[in-house]
Amino acid sequence: MADFQVNRTGDMPPCPRCGEPAALTAHLPLGDGIELFLCLRCDTGNTPAGRLVAILGLPEDQRPQDLFLDFAVAWLRDGAAARGWVQIPGQREP
Ligand SMILES: [Zn+2]
Description:
By secondary structure, the chain is an alpha+beta fold. The chain has one domain. It is about 30% helix and about 15% strand. It has two helices and three strands; from the N terminus they run E-E-E-H-H. It has helices at about 50-55, 65-80, and strands spanning about 5, 25-30, 35-40. A three-stranded antiparallel sheet has the order 1-2-3, covered by helices on one side. Helix 1 packs antiparallel against helix 2. It binds zinc ion (ZN). Zinc ion binds near residues 17, 20 and 41.
């Protein structure tokens, strides 16, 4: 899990879809590099991103941390898979 970065501090870059500040961003060092943006407005529904947004919508002390990590990894995998990558480097399968 050391080969990618997830950022959620300071001024967040805008979501490329709606322009609102992203809730989370991630950089995956795959190919030319993959930038992922998690957006509270655009990422909804029963998708890895939507499930992560649902957790982020909870008060911080009520977020299930184990699920947050699982959903974050699922979001990263989904983002990589959408660009043709099927596994995140450095991550072992369960
Ligand atoms: Zn958006």
